[in-house]
What does this fold into?
Amino acid sequence: MAEQRVRRPMMAANWKMNKLVREAQEYVSQLLPRIENAEGVDVAIFAPFTSLVEVARMIRDTPVVAGAQNLYYEDSGAFTGEVSALMLQDIGAGAVLVGHSERREIFGESDELVARKTARAVEAGMLPVVCVGETQEERDAGEMWEKCSRQVQRVIEELGELNGESIVFAYEPIWAIGTGATASPEDAQDAIGQIRGLLGELRGEEFAEGVRILYGGSIKPGNVGEIMAQTDVDGGLVGGASLEANTFAELVNGAANHKDS
It folds into this structure.
């Protein structure tokens, strides 16, 4: 599919609930010089709220984007413990993770809530990275596509008119997150290809060809080349392997090397 080369690859670090401010400062200081020659790939760091201000400050004049790990769909009000898109933008965040499996599985976020959060991020001009994926039990029961397609459809239903560059999806098989297990490159391509096909049915081929779809699930330097070589895979949402600056730099440089136009 020649059109896929138009999509700019993205490598995103999800620190989850890790790194104090000092550790975040050290990480960014180590990362930036190691990726300065990685042209043609977008880089995002999804940091905890406590270190997000400092990450945003340190990368302000670089191509790297500061991202939050969550947001709420209201701009203000009596929502103790929540953070709005306007608050995130105020400190320099340009992207946000929405519907990560840990938010869905541990904190009970519904497809409806994820969709509303996504719509608010798009409306505010932030780039949402929307996560979809299945558990091992769902995969074994043959329910993978039912689960993923439902999650994708609910998000698209909530959104108004937008182009594919306004949103990123990340396919993250839950059984491969933090377990060391990884979907084969062919499995990743199959799932992501189906998602792109569904987006085409829902919003047209032009929209579908513009949407970047990342793979998330124990991606590391040893497999990034094979995964990035797949036609419909546009990058990675990286968890554990993103916690070391050197390792994440390898992934960024690997993405740049394997997605040259």
User: Anything to note?
Assistant: The chain is about 45% helix and 15% strand. The chain has one domain: 2-249. The CA atoms of residues 15 and 47 lie 6 Å apart.
